Amino acid sequence: DNQMTQSPSSLSASVGDRVTITCRAGHTIRNYLNWYQHKPGKAPKLLIYAASSLQSGVPSRFSGSGSGTDFTLTISSLQPEDFATYYCHQSYNPPYTFGQGTRLEIK
Amino acid sequence: QVQLQQSGPGLVKPSQTLSLTCAISGDSVSSNSAAWNWIRLSSSRGLEWLGRTYYRSQWYNDYALSVKSRMTINADTSKNQVSLQLNSVTPEDTAVYYCAREYSAGPFRAWGQGTLVTVSS
After folding, report:
1. Do the Cβ atoms of B93 and B70 come closer than 8 Å?
2. Largest CB tally within 10 Å, which of A20, B89, B94, B95?
């Protein structure tokens, strides 16, 4: 399996802060990297696909970058509804794998 | 707009078989541009991809190594749905299970509502 290492595992931040989450693949995945937001009781929501493409309907404060093995998700100015858990996901080759998640909490 | 509606029991006894279905509307299970995935979420392991089925002139399956020996994913074209069977379950299989439609290059844009499955006697 291509292990995805996500950091940090948790993060405390305030409304208006800029936050960055990183994800590293064990082997190159080109740009086959997706980011999801998950809130309790709901299905995960796709935010970013193909490393840097913003999913339709997702606010522009979310952005993604990277290629190969190193990727980042940035939220430019945190809003109250952004406090959730975030996961990266490689879809280069099955078996697909997810990062272990980053829990974003209110400071 | 693709919609996925999951069904199945929320409680399964250890050593028995976990069975879930995912009914598809707004798309065809035989679509040549889709793959139908199963994913689970647990507090101990986070999101875990389990496997998928897809049709490209014939049916194909891929499975995670951790469940490959116990899992079967099937498509039912007459009902336009996919199913998951996980044999010999243990409490470690307790999780919320999701089906999801995979688009080209792999992102999961459409998800089922999730089914909490508890493995307990």
Report:
1. no
2. B95
The CA-to-CA distance between both ends of chain B, in Å, stands at: 39
Which of A96, A98, A100, A103 should be substituted to probe chain B, the one whose Cβ sees the most B Cβ atoms within 10 Å?
A96
Q: Do A95 and B64 touch (CB under 8 A)?
A: yes
- C-alpha closest to that of A22 among A76, A77, A82, A86: A86
Whole-number pLDDT of residue B62: 96
Contact B47 A89 (CB under 8 A): yes
b/e per residue B34-61 (b: at least 16 CB within 10 A): bbbbbbbbeeeebbbbbbbbbbeeeeeb
For B95, list phi and psi in degrees, rounded to 5. -175, 170
